Amino acid sequence: MGHGGGGALSAELVENVFLPAFGGRTLAALGDSAALSLGGARLAFSTDSFVVRPLFFPGGCIGDLAVNGTVNDLAMSGARAAYLSCAFILEEGVETSVVGRIAGALGDAARAAGVEVVTGDTKVVESGRGDGVYVNTAGIGLIPPGVDIRPQRARPGDVVLLSGEIGLHGVAVMSMRQGLEFGVEIESDCAALGGLVDAMLAVTPDLHVLRDPTRGGLAAALNEIAAAAGAGVVVDERAVPVPPQVASACAVLGLDPMYVANEGKLVAFVPREHADGVLAAMRAHPLGAAAAVIGACVPDHPGMVVARTAFGGTRVVDLPLGEQLPRIC
Amino acid sequence: MGHGGGGALSAELVENVFLPAFGGRTLAALGDSAALSLGGARLAFSTDSFVVRPLFFPGGCIGDLAVNGTVNDLAMSGARAAYLSCAFILEEGVETSVVGRIAGALGDAARAAGVEVVTGDTKVVESGRGDGVYVNTAGIGLIPPGVDIRPQRARPGDVVLLSGEIGLHGVAVMSMRQGLEFGVEIESDCAALGGLVDAMLAVTPDLHVLRDPTRGGLAAALNEIAAAAGAGVVVDERAVPVPPQVASACAVLGLDPMYVANEGKLVAFVPREHADGVLAAMRAHPLGAAAAVIGACVPDHPGMVVARTAFGGTRVVDLPLGEQLPRIC
């Protein structure tokens, strides 16, 4: 299971199996989406399969997750999603009404994100060979001129911004799955981030890195950026907004919020001179109201993420090995 | 199972569930790929999930199928595939060596087709929730200027061309699955058709319709074209090349070769004045050596496909209801 968790085992599979087989410099850049040139246009292209369990959870379902996941991967290269493909693998016996509810949520999420579903596919597998519904989406978007956002561009001196509270998606799905109640219902933060990124780009096209901390959470996102850029990252743990209900749920479930998946948050590496302006623009957007400076990119310990703890110490924030929370997206 | 078979039940699911949910004129055009405009470029975009069983079969495996299936969908709008995404859903416990062999075949097929895998995703599901390996690909290609190939453009008077022998892919997979031996090994015709389409377009950009007869076979492809164009199609059964080993296997398996999936063939609707030239170009290409005129588009019985049988009679060739051969691609 760990090979799909977005941690070190996932990275190993990509590096040892997929990269040698597929080759190519674009894939090797390992961004959330690929930046391409085609017919004179600069395109971003990305894909994700969604295998979340259960299919419906507080705050969303596999349908809107499938739209927002891919729209956000495109947004992380500064691209506004334009077109989506959508492919269903249905398990024999799944109710048409369930497929209909998922398709409805998917269509609504696409309209909300301003993206059009233009092509699709449906396959059916025997009972016991699937799990109700799996959905794949791929997306294409245009990268605006002058924008070059990728993990390799993190630079010592960059300010690290986070768009809001972490842990909501993972905890919402996990509590649903385990039948846990925490007094207050925890809802997934599943949302499309294209509008927030547009607001940030209006301040400066020179954002260095954007990443949505999904599988593996904020810890995995920061580690991937540190590794890609060969730079160090320092995070101030007290500055990372963790909602109290996420903190309690994580305590019960034995999880660290830094490793829990989000589906409507982003982390940004921004040149110091633009940090205040970008932060203000984020806070003025509904999806960035709780945005905060959470750390900085530093010349020390290249490739490594270090957290300043609430008690004044420091600890290394590792890339998770396998999967804390399987099938979260 | 029938809802994934490419027949009438599939069409019903698309029309009653997906189209109302997703909306949009592009999706409603229901081509093998969507024709889009983005940043001044004319793009084709398509996706397919692959759930073929077994993963390896005579003449190919799920890896090259995943490349050729999507490359061919793009080629059916006249586009040369440029970029592919590739997403794996792995079942817990599948051997890394199996994933590696599939990835290797996928990479080789991509290089052979001149397309680059630029972005990907891997998910892992629990044992019993998948079937070894499912693969999704999505592809983007450029549509050359002046090319407008889609099912709606079939016109009475068009000549119907077929690029070669039918039934090889479906029978190869099915015989492998059922452990049947037919004396001669039957190999899948799995191949990328971009080069063949380029050769046809070099004769005239005014090809009206291209379709690769995959799920549901030649019968489904012709029915979809007849329905989309509101035109009739007449096929001369004796002119459709059926290899003797496919005919014998179909007799044993109780199948009609007209309904069996192909993965390296195309059917073309071509204006009469260009038919000879296009046929010659097809025959000069290795993947079109056995190309033949198999029928015509007619003003009679709009939306219906009629076959002239070997005995001089006629019969209606229906859209298959469900799935003759489940999980063939």
UniProtKB/TrEMBL annotation, chains A, B:
Domain PurM-like C-terminal, residue spans: 155-300
Sequence ranges assigned to domain PurM-like N-terminal in this UniProt record: 32-143
One Gene Ontology term from the biological process aspect of the record: protein maturation
Alphabetized CDD domains for the sequence: HypE
Family affiliation: Belongs to the HypE family.
Protein name: Hydrogenase expression/formation protein HypE
The organism's taxonomic lineage, starting at the top: Bacteria, Bacillati, Actinomycetota, Actinomycetes, Kitasatosporales
Gene name, Swiss-Prot/TrEMBL: hypE
